């Protein structure tokens, strides 16, 4: 069996990868070539130092916190509603084959709709406030969670189910002790992915039409060719996703402590 990777070593390697990327970016945008110009003009690609300086400057003020709060609220609402809806509907469809068979073509058709096309429609329905962004993020999160939960329930071993029924478990006990644990791994796998998609839905909605949020800030910077502002907004979004994903991981580790790999970490 492979030895687990040391957490400290992993963190160091991750930091080194990020630093290497920043160094390469810095060199390509600052070191002159044969013609006296850098390979990547700073006007189009900015520089890491300029982006970090802009980010620090933004966080030293109050305006960025308002935009960050708007995007955070939209992301959390989209993530929460989409995850709950995907879990509930996924369980229902997995446990009732007739229901799944009837709605199967409609679910696939709805999932195939381009989300960018839906964004203007949601703006017409719900206005330019937060709910049009929440609706867009919901459509991105819901289907990811739904398909994973559905598959997780369907993957439950028939032998395990037969043994559980032989022990006298009713449907409620099966749901709690068999189906739910089986679906948790699939569910959290989808939640890690859907965190980013919830944020994408919020930011795209803000980008297309809003008076606040990180997407609005990025669009505002693009409209005046402020590449540094655009990259600064993207950096904030990346950190934002990592923080939310870390929270999801903490919840996952708490709920899945019974797994062999998780139990080994707690010893």
- The general outline is globular
Order of helices and strands: HHHHHHHHHHHH
Structural classification: mainly alpha
Secondary structure: helix percent: over 70%
The mean pLDDT is: 82
Q: Uncertain segments of ≥5 residues (pLDDT<50)?
A: 262-267
Write down the CATH topology of the largest domain: MetI-like fold
Per CATH, the architecture of the largest domain is: Orthogonal Bundle
Report the sheet with the most strands, covering strand number, pairing sense and barrel closure: none
- Count of helical stretches: 12
Radius of gyration: 23 Å
Compute the number of structural domains.
2
Fourth CATH level, the homologous superfamily of the largest domain: MetI-like
Report the end-to-end length measured between terminal Cα atoms: 17 Å
User: Beta-sheet strand percentage?
Assistant: under 5%
How many E strands?
0
CATH class of the largest domain: Mainly Alpha
């Amino acid at each position: 069996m492979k030895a687990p990777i040391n957490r400290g070593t992993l963190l160091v390697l991750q930091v080194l990868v990020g630093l290497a990327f920043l160094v390469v970016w810095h060199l390509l945008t600052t070191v002159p070539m044969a013609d006296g110009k850098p390979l990547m003009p700073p006007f189009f690609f900015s520089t890491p130092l300029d982006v970090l300086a802009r980010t620090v400057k933004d966080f030293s003020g109050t305006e960025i916190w308002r935009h960050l709060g708007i995007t955070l609220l939209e992301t959390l609402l989209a993530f929460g509603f989409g995850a709950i809806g995907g879990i509930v509907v996924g369980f229902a469809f997995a446990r009732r084959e007739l229901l799944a068979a009837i709605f199967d073509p409609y679910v696939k058709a709805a999932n195939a709709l381009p989300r960018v096309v839906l964004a203007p429609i949601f703006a017409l329905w719900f206005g330019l406030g937060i709910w049009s962004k929440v609706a867009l993020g919901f459509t991105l999160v819901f289907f990811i969670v739904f398909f994973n939960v559905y598959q997780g329930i369907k993957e439950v071993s028939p032998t395990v189910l037969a043994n559980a029924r032989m022990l006298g478990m009713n449907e409620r006990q099966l749901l709690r002790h068999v189906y739910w644990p089986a679906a948790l791994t699939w569910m959290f796998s989808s939640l890690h992915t859907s965190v980013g998609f919830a944020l994408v839905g919020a930011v795209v909605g803000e980008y297309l039409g809003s008076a606040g949020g990180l997407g609005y800030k990025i669009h505002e910077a693009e409209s005046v060719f402020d590449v540094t502002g655009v990259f600064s907004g993207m950096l904030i979004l990346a950190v934002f996703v990592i923080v939310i994903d870390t929270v999801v991981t903490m919840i996952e580790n708490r709920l899945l402590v019974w797994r062999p790999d998780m139990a080994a970490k707690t010893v």
